[in-house]
Design brief:
By secondary structure, this protein is mostly beta strands. It is built from four helices and 18 strands. Strands 3, 4, 5, 8, 9, 11, 12 and 15 form an eight-stranded mixed beta sheet that branches. A five-stranded mixed beta sheet has the order 6-18-17-13-14, with no helix packed on it. Bound molecules: manganese (II) ion. Manganese (II) ion binds next to loops.
Length: 235
């Protein structure tokens, strides 16, 4: 059998554990939904009106993924490193132009995640009309728990919460998503051929804020998973 040779080893496949299984969930892409809770959109001074607005997305490189429980260095280039607690949808089946009614067929399962954000750089980019990459595409900035296999299930209601050093900072319910799981799959597949291994971070509720070195983040999505992250010293 012929073997492709590379001048250096190709990048490792990113993956997450799956609860109760020995196989891991191989990562394809990391999609993030912006402003998907009304109260968070308001705290960001960009209120959403669903009758006229459409969902929007950004992506982070798979290499930004880090498993829940890790200790990460405080990242370079920011003085305002924010947590965003999110329900994460794991895609298990390919789909393109999928209707909301058929959206459940793409669901492999769910996880709890953090969309870590250099808020200072994101806001500069937003005001100048520049891409968000420096604010969002951060090494170790896409935190995720194990994947929970819940094939074909649509989560419509679940408490979502986050604490920093034990103090509650975010507390909401995914029933408050502006665009729900079915609507997100239907909309995103108008633009992308979703693939197994695609994760969709569905947006954060209100209460986002900064962490500093030495802080410990804990969080959970009821009925899915519990998450933690320790912020270490800057490199
Ligand atoms: Mn987010």
């Amino acid at each position: 059998m012929s073997q492709t040779n590379y001048v250096f080893p190709p990048p490792a496949v990113q993956s997450l554990p799956i609860r109760g299984k020995s196989e891991r969930y191989a990562i394809n892409r990391l999609f993030f939904v912006g402003r998907n809770y009304y109260a968070h959109a308001i705290e960001m001074d960009r209120p959403v009106d669903k009758t006229v607005d459409k969902p929007f997305y950004f992506l982070k490189a798979p290499q930004t993924l880090v498993e829940s429980g890790a200790t990460i260095p405080y990242p370079p280039g920011t003085q305002n490193y924010h947590y965003e607690m999110e329900l994460v949808l794991a895609v298990g089946k390919a789909g393109f132009r999928v209707s909301a009614e058929q959206a459940h067929e793409l669901v492999y399962g769910y996880a709890a995640g953090l969309d870590m954000t250099r808020r200072d750089l994101q806001l500069v980019a937003r005001e100048k009309g520049r891409p968000w990459d420096l604010g969002k595409d951060i090494e170790n900035g896409s935190v995720c728990t194990e994947i929970v296999h819940m094939p074909g299930q649509i989560i419509e209601q679940a408490a979502i919460a986050l604490e920093v050093n034990g103090e509650t900072k975010q507390s909401s319910n995914v029933e408050k998503l502006i665009w729900n799981i079915r609507e997100l799959i239907a909309d995103l597949t108008q633009f992308y051929h979703l693939q197994p291994g695609d994760l969709i971070y569905t947006g954060t509720p209100e209460g986002v804020g900064a962490v500093v070195a030495g802080d410990r983040i804990t969080g959970r999505v009821e009925g899915v998973a519990e998450l933690s992250l320790n912020i270490g010293a800057a490199e």
